[in-house]
Structure prediction request, 224 residues.
Amino acid sequence: MPILGYVLVAVAAYLLGSIPTGYLVARARGIDIRTAGSGNIGATNAMRVLGKPAGIFVLLMDALKGYAACAFLPPLVFNWLDPHFSGFFVYFQQWPIDLQIRVHVVAGLFAVLGHNYTCWLRFKGGKGIATSAGVYLALAPWALLIALAVFILTLLVTRYVSVGSISAAVALPAAVWMLPPHNLLLGIVTTALGAMAIYKHKGNLQRLAAGTENRLQFKKKETT
Prediction:
C-alpha cells in the first residue's frame, strides 16, 4: 500500500476532525465559547452555554466528524489512488481485513487528534468524547455500546458528565481488547485515546477533588 495513501488519509481525517463545531455554533450567536462556562468547545459546554438544542447539534456533528473520517475517507482515498480505478469502494474492500482496519484506525486516530488539537484554534480543542464515539461506531460498534452503557449508568448514579466520560474512556479500551476483531493496532490506539481523553479531563478531575464540579440537573428545581 502506498505511503501516500496513509498520509492523505491522516491529513484529510485531521482536517475533518479539526472543524470546531461548538466554537462555530457559538460564534454564530455572537459568543466565544472559549470564554464561557468551562471554556471547552465540546457538546457539554455548548449545552450549558447555548442550551440543549445547540448542545445536541454539536454532539451529533462532532460524532459525525469521527464516523465520516473513519468510515468513508480510507476507501475514498485509496480507491482514488488505485491505478485501476473501478469504483470508490471496490478496490479497498478487496484488501485483507487487517489491512482495512489499519487504515481505518489511522483515520480515526487523526480525526480525534484534529478535534482535540484543532489547527483553527491554536491547537486547543475539545476532549474528543463525541468524535471518538463516531470513530468507534464505525470501527467497533459493540465496544462502543458497552462504553455508552457505562457512561449512561455512571451519569445516572453520579450526575457528573465528566465522571461518565472518564468511565467510558476506561471501558472502551477494555471492551476493544476483549471483543473481536482482536486487532493489536486497534487495541493500542484505543488505549492511547482513552488515556488522552482522561488527560483532557484533568481540569474536571481537579474540580471533582475540590467539590466544585457542576452536576447535571435532570429536572428543574421547584420554586415557591
Remarks:
- Residues 136 and 144 are 6 Å apart (CA to CA).
- Residues 52-71 form the longest helix (20 residues).
- The chain has a mean pLDDT of 91.
- The chain has one domain: 3-210.
